[in-house]
């Protein structure tokens, strides 16, 4: 038996609860992992609350991230005792995920946990830090260097935003952080932001083209914010879009793209090829100051995951939430 968060839905209710499950109930997979740590991401909050149709089948164990040790494997890629991690691949949506003490998974979804990281550190980084690194790699491939000018980060107090600021600052970029929580300005500056702006400057309907302000941007918000980010990007600038906290819509015009040559790059962090995942995690080991993880994250036990998920959706959680599934 093992403990897990289980989401169930029937004609009467949608509910999430902490419960005991039998290993025989685990879904199909060729690698069984004894989970050490998982996380709470925005998508996990939606899954637990039922506020959006994230979960595609029931019952479901949420959790799009996990790190742990291989307990059983019928795939030659992994053996008992290997440390592994997983981000995405529909886990926690269509396949039981990481908010449990055990998970049964397909080997191709996993990568080896880098030797430089503990399971807890890997989950302190999680999908948020991994996505931020994919965004940075995309900007680099488009030739964005610190000399090109400032880089805007929206959703700065969230997980992706926090890591994006830290990674960019470590590479000597000048970072503008857009936040709806001005009281957190000191936190953002400790991460490396040089300028703080109010998200209200970007979150309402704006002009097709605005004053050129930043050379590049990492946006995890979407909707009007992303449209305004593109409108304020300098000629030949680059915007990496990786989230939809404000909404899935994109109420923009083609003006920034055809009049300024702005490039909008979509970041898919869910189903990246194995080589790209290994590259991104390798860069995180070298480019991220691991000492900031305590600043960015706080830890909870599995029993706290459901109430904290609701706090996350209400915007009352700063940075990352690491879940110790064994307490």
TrEMBL record:
Any one Gene Ontology MF annotation carried by this entry is: acryloyl-CoA reductase (NADPH) activity
Q: Which residues form the Enoyl reductase (ER) domain?
A: 9-323
Cited NCBIfam families: oxido_YhdH
* Protein name per the record: Acrylyl-CoA reductase (NADPH)
Organism, by scientific name, is Stutzerimonas stutzeri (Pseudomonas stutzeri)
Lineage of source species: Bacteria, Pseudomonadati, Pseudomonadota, Gammaproteobacteria, Pseudomonadales
